[in-house]
Specification:
CATH class of the largest domain: Alpha Beta
Bound molecules: flavin-adenine dinucleotide
Structural class: alpha/beta
Distance between the termini: 11 Å
Oligomer: single chain
Strand content: 15-25%
Number of helices: 10
CATH topology of the largest domain: FAD/NAD(P)-binding domain
Number of strands: 24
């Protein structure tokens, strides 16, 4: 397959949800564009996650505005494959010009003229603009404390698939955000002995007074928060749509049989040490949980809503033994631990973008996705414009803003002063009398692959 267009107004890199949303808005506004995806549409949902994963938000919420999930109840949680299928169907709906199986290898700004030259696995193209929609979670990160131990299976949560996929034995799951907590729960239910290393976290109730937390974050304006609250930079969020959706409650997980431990500090000679912060992390998680209930109650009272009271939601189970007397050291061999799953997050990789759009730490410099390098846009990054930016519903709105910006820029750049307009008129007259063949150019139309 070759990239048929040798030049395009706007190139979108990546056809996950961000690339699909971008393409929809550009299509609506009549901006000629092409989306290049190295794998398949929504590949990360298809193959980059564990088998049993479902969306963290219900189907009515975790979707784009213009299409519902086929055959799913609005309050159900779509499986990862249903999410991937959804984006394929979405792209087909408006015939998004997506080329799959084409990797963008390098983007360089043109010297002394407008636009960018893009090296792809299928050849070179030029674009006036490039939208980087390569995802918020590109490169799995395992912290440098990970031990060198050939007898231990160590994988990142991005590589975990199911309990059978791990060798027999106990498992240490490091990180208790939505991924770590769901994987630990699944492993324990499959009969594994599980240690779960819990750091600072938020844990909103799955539902309160009959409404999902996604609804509460929406009406309380939390999804729209433009900046992370100070001190929350290293706080993960623990939510789960698994088994119909439930509140993540670490005490319940401990009563169920998981051994909770504090933040993983270091490994030394087969012994892992944990920080003594478990109780405080759990207590802060409770504070976050209760603060949402309080905010929800205030909202109900102020707006006179008829939502049923939910006293049970305020019952916090007793502290389990592992919180009262936390394990601070664990000999992995004696504990029978044969695997470690690092649910420790992801980083981005923009090494292929050879442009001046990053700060000294390598982070993109941008305003709501509009880069400091004119013509470059970032989409889908956490907190791009607000808390919802990396999530399904949020990226669609950010894409609309970027599409508007592109249209405005195109308008400026297409402006011609009077002398240029006269010169163009003359050329157009000559072109109108030229043979048809001479007007043909290399661009050919493409459909969805
Ligand atoms: C475990 C997990 C569960 C999540 N659950 C939810 C949820 O329930 N609800 C929710 O709203 N969000 C959820 N998210 C967050 C977010 O919705 C997903 O991460 C989503 O995949 C982000 O979409 P994206 O399009 O921005 O990026 P991606 O899905 O990562 O898509 C980027 C695409 O770019 C392609 N690409 C990358 N580099 C290149 C290149 N150089 N050339 C060509 N193509 C390239 C990749 O192949 C990929 O297909 C979850 C995230 C994770 C990790």
């Amino acid at each position: 397959m070759t990239v048929e267009k040798t030049s395009i107004d706007t190139l979108v890199v990546g056809a996950g949800q961000a690339g699909v949303a971008m393409s929809e808005h550009l299509s609506k506004l009549g901006v000629p564009h092409l989306v290049l995806e190295r794998d398949r549409i929504a590949e990360r949902w298809r193959t980059g996650r564990w088998d049993s994963l479902v969306a963290n938000g219900p189907a009515w919420h975790d979707r784009f505005p213009n299409l519902e999930f086929d055959g799913l109840e609005p309050d159900a949680f779509a499986s990862k494959d249903q999410v991937a299928d959804y984006f394929v169907a979405y792209a087909e709906k408006f015939e998004a010009p997506i080329r799959t199986g084409v990797e963008v290898k390098e983007v360089v700004r043109n010297a002394g003229r407008q636009g960018f030259t893009i090296e792809t696995s299928e050849g070179t193209i030029e674009a006036s603009r490039v939208v980087v929609a390569t995802g918020p979670f590109q490169r799995p990160v395992i912290p440098p404390i990970a031990p060198e131990a050939p007898n231990l299976t160590q994988i990142h949560s991005a590589e975990y698939r199911n309990p059978e996929h791990l060798p027999e034995g106990a498992v240490l799951v490091v990180g208790a955000g939505s991924s770590g907590v769901q994987i630990a729960d699944e492993l324990q239910r499959a009969g594994r002995e599980v240690y779960l290393s819990v750091g600072p976290h938020d844990r909103p109730p799955r539902a309160y007074r009959g409404r999902d937390f996604c609804w509460w974050l929406g009406v309380l304006g939390e999804w729209d928060a433009e900046v992370m609250r100070p001190g929350k930079e290293h706080v993960t969020i623990a939510v789960s749509g698994a088994r119909g959706g439930h509140t993540v409650d670490f005490r319940r997980l401990a009563h169920q049989g998981i051994t909770l431990v504090g933040l993983t500090k270091s490994f030394n000679g087969g012994v892992v040490t944990f920080q003594s912060d478990l109780a405080i992390n759990i207590a802060r998680g409770d504070e976050n949980y209760l603060s949402l209930l309080n905010a929800a109650d205030t909202y109900v009272a102020r707006n006179g809503l008829d939502l049923p009271e939910d006293h049970e939601a305020r019952i916090i189970p007793a502290d389990p033994e592992c919180v009262l007397n936390p394990v601070l050291e664990l000999d992995l061999t004696k504990a029978g631990v044969t695997s470690i799953i690092w649910a420790t997050g992801y980083a981005v990789d923009f090494s292929w973008l050879k442009i001046d759009a990053f700060d000294e730490k390598g982070k993109p410099k941008h305003q709501r996705g509009v880069s400091k390098e004119p013509g470059i846009y970032f989409l889908g990054l956490p907190w791009l414009s607000r808390r919802g930016s990396a999530f399904i519903w949020g990226v669609w709105h950010d894409a609309r803003h970027i599409a508007d910006h592109i249209v405005t820029q195109r308008k400026y750049l297409s402006y011609r002063d009077a002398s240029q307009r006269h010169a163009t008129d003359g050329r157009e007259e000559r072109a109108a009398s030229a043979p048809v063949d001479s007007c043909l150019h290399k661009v050919s139309e493409m459909g969805v692959n």
